[in-house]
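Q: Start with the shorter request: fold the first protein.
A: Done. Sequence, then structure:
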Amino acid sequence: MSAVVLRRGPVSLRVERRTLVLVAAMALVVLVLGFLGLSYGATWADPAKVFAALTGSGGGSGVVIREWRLPRVLSCLVFGAALGVAGAIFQNVTRNPMGSPDVIGLDAGAYTGALVAITVLSGTSAQLTAGSLAGGVLAAAAVYLLSSGGGLSGLRLVVIGIAVNAVLTAMNSWIVLRAELEVAIAAVGWSAGSLNGVDWEDVRIPFAVIGVLLVLLVLRSPALHQDALGTALAVTTGVRVDRLRLHLVLIGVGCTATVTAVAGPIAFIALAAPQIGRRLARAPGVPLLPAALTGAVLLQGADLVAQMLLAPVALPVGVVSTAIGGCYLIWLLTKEVRRA
């Protein structure tokens, strides 16, 4: 399929026509799912009420839609995109479709940091964010150091990451078992990954942090695309590969830890979204924008299913994403074994 060149002043960008069509289609799906999310609740709101609420009117139902449902819908959009981008970053760095944050232990590390904030400190939002970020960074550093001996390879990093993930998961269980009953119940409920009860106060700072990280990623994306064509080619074109990958890992850890600090660990979105987006776009490497849009669609869809499946009881979205992602992981492992 032919390419389209987008120009604005001295800046030009060459994009495959299929990618443009895919982005437009995914954006439409995101809007439709978002509208369903705003309409669904204890009572259905018709389109007129939703539009009235978004324009600042609508009475009591308008307040419900703006203050309760809108933060949740936007959280699905932003957090899903952040997880999709984080997965694309790590799958590009490791050159492996299983190299996602939840498989190589970064989610578990962020959860460990958050557990320390909950059990040792008072568990405020700032402490959860700082704890999750510190835990994710330490887990990434451990995986990197343990897998860098004899030259860094994607397969070694994934295998070491799975082992680190197992260790951290066991440590998290031990922390929960040692905690007081009320704290343990809260920690276990939070670990399921849920967007229930998310409001504007919970998401303002995380949205800003993720926005900054995505801007930094856009600035590094040209070098990322060169690196995706091969390390030797990237080096010959002036890309400092080690520094680039360090920046990318920090951005990916930041996205994962920020989502974990608010909603808990939401599994498999970061694993599945980049590969689904790559197959839909039929692009080389793991493109970022299709991964972000696919992550947003997956998390929005999973959250709607979580709300509707046992209504009026809303399941944690992590339960649904884990059930769907488990099937995807089985298919992916089967395919990798046949390829080997």
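Q: Next, the second protein, separately.
A: Sequence, then structure:
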Amino acid sequence: MSRIQQVFADLKTAGRKALIPYITAGDPDLDTTLMLMHELVAKGADIIELGVPFSDPMADGPTIQLAYERALRQGVGLNDVLALVGRFRETDTATPVVLMGYMNPVEFMGYDRFVDSAVAAGVDGVLVVDMPPEECQELTDKLHAKELDTIFLLTPTTSESRAKTICAQSSGYVYYVSIKGVTGASTLDVDHVAQQLNRLRQFTDLPLAVGFGIKTPADAAAVSRVAEGVIVGSALVSVVADLQTAGAVEISSQVSAIIADMRQAMDHA
């Protein structure tokens, strides 16, 4: 059983839902990201999604795009992100880390080298936003062979036939995008999310985690009533942006406080 599967199994036994914060690696710098990862875990995060900076993030709104730009200006690339995960593993061997990014850096590194490096660093799962499920077999086979989970996105506009294909390629959990559009956009409609999740459950037994549009503890609590996981990204990254010159301690304090409030709200939902 992978670390991701173990987390969801333990949470199900405990009657709780997974809280999955997303942050961009290297925003505003790698040392701050490392501190933030540990603080997020201390305040109730179950899994960490770590964004790999990329110059053309087509699924992300302005908040995440600017985070990528801040990291890229410092020269942060895929090798640096993998090294960061290795540093995180020096003191945390339990919390799953999922790399979330785009295909170009993986292809540039090469599938075999990427998979081997991810395993060596302590990565648990990979979400490649622009990897079509119809063209992913080679990479997913290599990832699964090394017991790395493959997480895919499903959206409100995903057809039934494509949802079946995506669920068949997925492991660990399935990421359901709650809104039409990019990260940080629009308003959350939890009733519609619940309907969509019920539709998807006929295709998979994997946990369903919901992201995009979750900004407040009330949002997190509402989504936790209908999904196995709650993913929070832009609400955290926007705080990092506001405090980028304030220092690692202040950034970690304020971002982890948001997660603590969401954790509390979810546990009382």
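Q: Describe the second briefly.
A: The chain is about 50% helix and 15% strand. The first strand starts at residue 18 and ends at 24.
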